[in-house]
Specification:
about 170 residues; single chain; about 10% strand; three-stranded parallel sheet
């Protein structure tokens, strides 16, 4: 059974960071048959898909190409069937957690432009390293830092960052 919500493209949220390096990877699906986006929760799979589809629509590309339909699988784990044939024939685009992690520049844009301006480059670097670019981890850290109790001790954000654990789902 397919849920109706899984058939509609969700809107790009307010915590959106443009990711041209990943859009270029997604554009490869236009030349191939299947794309697999596989990562744990909080890596931005849905946001990537939504933003990419929005870009395709803006460029006036069709999102479905009958009779040459392209399949995009977005999942928290790799599918239970073999993809080796598609890989060997170069008909598969794969994007995994390591690809979805924010780069240092993306983390800085996300933290200072989207979440809470004022993070120093040292804190951004530390949070990026501690979360390994995990988007949900960076968002949680920014939300904690915006808490009035923490914000009153802004100098302690580096202490918060230093104690932030990499124990996420990736």
């Amino acid at each position: 059974m397919i849920l109706q919500t899984k058939l509609n493209v969700p809107p790009v949220g307010h915590t959106f960071v443009s990711r041209p390096r990943l859009y270029a990877r997604m554009d490869e699906i236009l030349e191939r048959k299947v794309a697999l986006i596989s990562a744990a929760a909080g890596y931005g799979k849905t946001t990537l898909l939504s933003a990419w589809l929005q870009r395709l629509t803006a460029r006036q590309n069709r999102v479905v190409w009958p009779p040459q339909v392209h399949l995009i699988i977005s999942s928290r784990c790799d599918p239970p069937f073999s993809l080796s044939s598609l890989r060997a024939k170069e008909k598969l685009v794969e994007i995994h957690a390591g690809d979805l992690c924010f780069t240092a520049e993306e983390a800085a844009q996300f933290l200072n432009d989207v979440m809470a301006p004022g993070f120093s480059q040292d804190v951004i670097s530390l949070l990026g390293a501690r979360t390994q670019g995990w988007i949900a981890g960076l968002q949680l850290a920014a939300l904690i830092a915006r808490d009035p109790l923490v914000a009153s001790h802004r100098g302690d954000v580096s202490t918060l960052a230093a104690g932030f654990d990499k124990g996420h789902g990736g």
